Amino acid sequence: MSTILSISDLSKTYDGGFTALHPLNLDIARGEIFALLGPNGAGKTTLISIICGLVNASTGRVSVDGHDSITGFRKARAQIGLVPQELATESFETVWATVSFSRGLFGKPPNPALIEKILRDLSLWDKKDNRILTLSGGMKRRVMIAKALSHEPRILFLDEPTAGVDVDLRRDMWRLVRRLKDAGVTIILTTHYIEEAEEMADRIGVINRGRLMLVEEKDALMRNLGRKQVTVTLASQLGALPARLAERGVRLGDDGRALTWIYEPARVRAGMPGLLADIAAEGLTVADIDTRRSSLEDIFVDLVKGAQ
Ligand SMILES: Nc1ncnc2c1ncn2[C@@H]1O[C@H](COP(=O)(O)OP(=O)(O)OP(=O)(O)O)[C@@H](O)[C@H]1O
Ligand SMILES: [Mg+2]
């Protein structure tokens, strides 16, 4: 697995003295989808802006496929496509002209066939002769993506790509991201939507108050940190919770029939079988069992709350 983006000791203190990023290290592997998850003001846009050369870092450096983002700016930047969080597209130009021009900015020769493909992929082809300012918000966002792809970047940054977009566009975006990944593009996206990270990402980084709290393979994250909730409905009512179940951390619902147990599969040996054996040992009959694995959302909320 080779590294395409390497971030070392990067920090940012804005002019007013506010530290938006504490020294941070992160390597991104070629071809992966990395989701940066964090609440408002966590530092996501600041981080992306530094990598893309829009904001100066206070300390540290970024290497993009071997090119330093400052001393090798042009080469580093040419590898990168950025879809910014804020749309800046009040243009009188047409969609076609805007996207073609964007490619030219990176010194790439015209490639109408490629621009056509990008516009078709983003369902913008029938709008190609429309002026940008006549488009809807969602279409403008698609244009921003088309612009970012016009120079065939190897790394694509999507800063909140699906904030405020409808379900259709979100699905389109996800499909597009998968196609790009299949074509070998590395994708780094920021999002508030945990389900988006859960659905899309190979790895997830959680950032909060300018600190990278955690970076982990999504699957491992779900496996290691995911808690399980078991609800066992008993065939008959219980007056009180038997001691051995109470010791296990099981709770009895007000109805006297629902036993709820939350545990971490990674830490508890023989979780479910152990619980069922305890229930059987008490001579209780089980009517129903329901299990639920905690989602990434629970993990995220715990992490962010824990840091406060
Ligand atoms: N130009 C600036 N000058 C001073 N402070 C700034 C500047 N830009 C951002 N900040 C502060 O840095 C912190 C991080 O902002 P940033 O935009 O990186 O957060 P974010 O994680 O992208 O948030 P959001 O989810 O709302 O987009 C915030 O507290 C913000 O107010
Ligand atoms: Mg942001």
Features:
single chain; 308 residues; alpha/beta; Rossmann fold; Alpha-Beta Plaits; 2 domains; six-stranded mixed sheet; four-stranded antiparallel sheet; 11 helices; 14 strands; 35% helix; binds adenosine-5'-triphosphate; binds magnesium ion; ABC_transporter_ATP-binding; ABC_transporter-like_CS; ATP-binding; transport
Structure, explained:
By secondary structure, the protein is α/β, with parallel strands linked by helices. It folds into two domains: 221 residues, P-loop containing nucleotide triphosphate hydrolases (Rossmann fold), CATH 3.40.50.300; 80 residues, Alpha-Beta Plaits. The protein is built from eleven helices and 14 strands. It has a six-stranded mixed beta sheet with strand order 6-7-8-3-9-10, sandwiched between helices. Strands 2-1-4-5 form a four-stranded antiparallel beta sheet. A four-stranded antiparallel beta sheet has the order 12-13-11-14. Strand 12 and strand 13 form a beta hairpin. It is elongated and about 80 Å long. The model has no long low-confidence stretch (mean pLDDT 89). It binds adenosine-5'-triphosphate (ATP) and magnesium ion (MG). The site of adenosine-5'-triphosphate has 13 residues, from helix 1. It holds the Pfam family ABC_tran. GO terms for molecular function: ATP binding; ATP hydrolysis activity. Keywords: ATP-binding, Nucleotide-binding, Transport. Belongs to the ABC transporter superfamily. This is ABC-2 type transport system ATP-binding protein.
In total, the number of domains comes to: 2
Structural class call reads alpha/beta
CATH class of the largest domain: Alpha Beta
Strand segment count = 14
SSE order: EEEHEEHEHHHEHEHEEHEHEEHEH
Largest sheet: 6 strands, mixed
Helix content: 25-40%
CA-atom Rg in angstroms = 25 Å
List the total number of helices: 11
Low-confidence stretches: none
GO molecular function, one term: ATP binding
Protein name: ABC-2 type transport system ATP-binding protein
Family: Belongs to the ABC transporter superfamily.
Organism: Camelimonas lactis
